[in-house]
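Methods: example folding runs. The two proteins below were folded one after another, and each record is reproduced exactly as written to the output file, sequence line first and structure-token line second.
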Amino acid sequence: MPESYDLTVIGAGPGGYVAAIRAAQLGMNVCIIEKDKPGGICLNWGCIPTKALLESAHLLEKLHSAKEYGINLSDPKPDFAAIIRRSRNVAEGMASGVEFLLNKNKITRKKGTAVFKDPNTIWLPDSSKEEITSKYFILATGARARELPDLPFDSHTVLSSKTAMIQDKIPESLLIVGAGAIGVEFADFYSTMGTKVTLVEMMDQILPVEDKEISTFLEKSFVKRGIRVLTGVGVSDPKIVNGKVKVLLKGKNLPEAVESFEAEKILVSIGLVPNTDSMHLEEIGIFLQKGFVKTDTKYKTSVPHIYAIGDCNGPPLLAHVASMEGIKAVEAISIHAGNPHHLSYIPIDYNAIPGCTYCHPEVASIGFTEKKQLTWVIRSAWVNFHLLPAGEPKPWEIPEVLQK
């Protein structure tokens, strides 16, 4: 007989494990299914370990300027293997913490990939083969890195954000395609390690979701540090030749319309693909749009007892958003099931979500930026405030600060 639960959560990332814990707190009998370590991409291969890498890079930069602080040091050099090892240890420690929380809340854990047999039943074909039925399901399957056409990831020359953080040596040169948060953060890290970095973005600015002058501010900082930044430039005809990557760069901002370019490695950070393509979702009646699960304002899918949260239901693709959506989805389920805890449903205000890119200088925004405001009929005024003349940045030797 299949095991049966009040709620089964598929995916133990920042949305899934938070949803499972909230459901257990509300008295539900909960099962969570994860094919890898708990914590998802953010904790194991994204937000957390990349911040550990960037902190090592930031410290190295500080050590290079130690004399400005009155400290004499010989030439500091990175121990790349130790930097990678520290990053992995940080992630593994956090994953252990999530395991502890799941066990503490008496949540049943299953390892494997879930596939729907019918709207009320899933099975785990790649592990135990067991079947599970549930009154409610939450899809929290996340997303994965998108590949360049005709250039699949190979972990050595063609890197995803995951494999970029576990390389065994510092590459001499690195082409980064895509200058969103992931591309910008890795450009910062590898440049500080000593790699010759070229950052390519097909839009007209790096960090395309940020306001133009913020992106320009960061670009100038990167260029000063020796990072080549190319905006309005696309990549075509990628190939691996003698262990290196060769591409054609095309764009109006190049000295010539087309440039042949070679690098030791390429990091592709051109967006994410939702992990919804192997679960038989459409076969059981769940509507997808470009692979993302369509939901209503309470995260309910087109199948009333199945909900979807986090990256698999579309932007904004942020870990803290997934966590809050997990809480809200569980509370919506509890209310739907008779509201025994007398909950009131308060929707998330998606206009007040903070975002941060942890490069140096860091970039953060919250609420209505000018770029977001342009999509609304709102009268507004904007002021840029350079904090360099103020006293606060000086003790830290921060070269320039821009606040908008």
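Second run, written to the same file directly after the first:
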Amino acid sequence: MSRKEERDRAIAETLDKVRAVEGVTRQSLEEIRDHMIALAQRRDLFTEEDFPIPADGTGETFDVLSRDDDGRHELYIEVANKHVWTPPHNHTTWAVVVGIQGVELNRIWEGDGGPAGEAPLRLAREIEVRNGAGVCLMPNDFHSIHMEEGVHNMHLHLYGLGFAHLKGRLMFDQETGSYRSFD
């Protein structure tokens, strides 16, 4: 069996376990995270040879490894060696991100609601996504992502719904304290 065939089989087995987890709660996402960490520990399936830094100079790829026919349980691998910084944003679906190699710092943000169009957010905590660790995000959680340049980062991102199905996502501008659409 080729490495790709073995990887595809391991992904399918992991996603079968994920589909068996009931509900969207912090506890259920932690169970999903544990299944995903076990998959990411299979370094023999996620090699730099199979997932190199892109040669096109962009420094980052975000490739689909699996998705259900209905758009659910969409699994991506992110490969990056560039400086990555995103503003705080939500996904409107649950998400679990685990590390294969490198570090993706996730800053988790909280807010007090504020008036419509405003987003007074404050940093609640930081979570390092690295080999053996991950982050769980509920649909309305806000996070920002930070990676350093020059490191061959590889992380698995699993979303309850794929990006093509996400509506109403928000991105927050910390300088103005306001939000805008992230669709």
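Comment on the second run: DSSP finds two helices and eleven strands in the chain.
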